[in-house]
Amino acid sequence: MDTKINLLDLSLDELRGFIAELREPRFRAEQVWQWMWQKGVSDFEEMSNVSKALRGKLAEHAVIRPPTIDTVRESDDGTVKFLLRLADGALIETVLLPSRTHYTQCLSTQVGCAMGCAFCSTGTMGLARNLAHSEICGQVLLGRKWLEQKNSQDKGERSLRNLVFMGMGEPLMNYDTLVKSLHTLRDDKAFGFSSRRMTVSTAGVPGRMTELVTSGLARLAVSLHAPTQELRERIMPRAARMHPLPALMEELKKLPLRPQERTTFEYILIGGLNDTQQHARELVRLLSHVRAKINLIACNPAKDSPFAAPTMEAIEAFQQVLRDKGLVAMLRKSKGQDIEAACGQLVTQKQKEQARTEQADA
Ligand code: SF4
């Protein structure tokens, strides 16, 4: 068994401690940190300003091991989905979403998810485990490297600018590692992302939303998807029971937002289930005491999902009700439909393929 420590799992402070144990000066930790995260180097021999003696000690006691790419799928609309394999064989997804000027990367925080949202492929898997710091920040290492290669081939200049924690898992159920990762992603000697360009999307974990907003490390988005507790229990059963809608809204009302800042609410419109004008009016009432911005997303049902996509008429009528009441409501296009880009679709498809192969081989 490999007992070497994966340096990508350490915070900068922890790396300083590790370097001190090797009886090396403190500044060496910053050098190694920059090689790993800023330059994306995983071979100690490439760390040219690090002494030969330290490179030898590092090779003896440590490794730099990001996740590996299992599959890459590119959509006609430019969306790129990666299936990543972790050291224990588990699979996770990360997605690069293009816009005219830049890319946004959607990140996973858990293998599977305990929340069991009915419209989500990841929800059908259950929770296997939390992701480690190396596995969360490693997704960004791989996404950024892939884009650099693509940009040099295409002579393009669209860089990775935004991060959204909306992939597999409930980020606030892996809170400590999420916070540690946000510090690394924000660090100028690592990735240098602005806190304003990192958004954590949650189904609502009591107390954690307030902690995250207070930390100022990232923006908050709340996956709401229903305007009443009863409907939310049908669509997002565990999340709705963990933080019932009245208590959730109470916590959101008291968030220490900056002036002008709004909480983003995600609302997936599911055909015939939560997309009527009556639902829109209930949503207006629910959000009347919070500074809200609403992202409407048309459901992109997986192949065997019982849910339907909403009609364009229903979407427009729903959006109009919100706008008539002065709410900011944007329709977000579902990207990468031809490559199963919605959360968890590619992993569940791969798991089914693997199960079929194992059966065929048995
Ligand atoms: S939508 Fe998010 S919280 Fe709900 S099951 Fe999927 S990954 Fe988990």
TrEMBL record:
PROSITE patterns to which the protein is assigned, alphabetical: RADICAL_SAM
UniProt keyword S-adenosyl-L-methionine, yes or no: yes
Co-factor: note: Binds 1 [4Fe-4S] cluster. The cluster is coordinated with 3 cysteines and an exchangeable S-adenosyl-L-methionine.
SUPFAM superfamilies listed in its UniProt record: Radical SAM enzymes
Residues at which S-adenosyl-L-methionine binds: G169, E170, S201, S223, L224, H225, N300
Radical SAM core domain mapped to chain residues: 99-338
EC number: 2.1.1.192
Function of the molecule: Specifically methylates position 2 of adenine 2503 in 23S rRNA and position 2 of adenine 37 in tRNAs.
Similarity comment: Belongs to the radical SAM superfamily. RlmN family.
Extra information: Reaction proceeds by a ping-pong mechanism involving intermediate methylation of a conserved cysteine residue.
HAMAP family in the cross-refs: RNA_methyltr_RlmN
Protein name: Probable dual-specificity RNA methyltransferase RlmN
Organism: Desulfocurvibacter africanus subsp. africanus str. Walvis Bay
UniProt gene name: rlmN
